Amino acid sequence: MEQLEPKSNDVITVHPTAPSRERSSSEDLRHELAAESLSDAARMALAAASVVSLAMAGGMLSAAFMWSDGAFHLGWLGTVFFATWLGLTWLLVFVHAALLQSNCVISRRARGVWLASFVLTGPVAFLAYWQMHVWPSSHSPRRE
Question: Is residue 27 included in any domain, yes or no?
Fold first, then answer.
């Protein structure tokens, strides 16, 4: 087999072994945090965190009916319980808002409604959004 050596004025063109995949304009705008990029374990963890947040909200509501000062009747433990619930709920608001932003199927008006429901109803809206938009989407990790 004859091997050619390039001369000084020859142009060498390098062809990649695998063709590069062209991205559509809608795919370029998607965040790294999309429902399709989440594994089943990550989706279940998100649902579990939402259920825990809902259970903690129910516990605080029950404490409000049992004692006049609510969960704070338990002293510092009630304060820690309330702060944990508040932190977990706000973290879930931000995660669900990012998932909502990367969802190309939902219209702009519906995104506003979902975001308002996340802030106003918290864990109930998280579980509804998870059931409708996160769990059913097929797993296809984003590749560079």
Answer: no
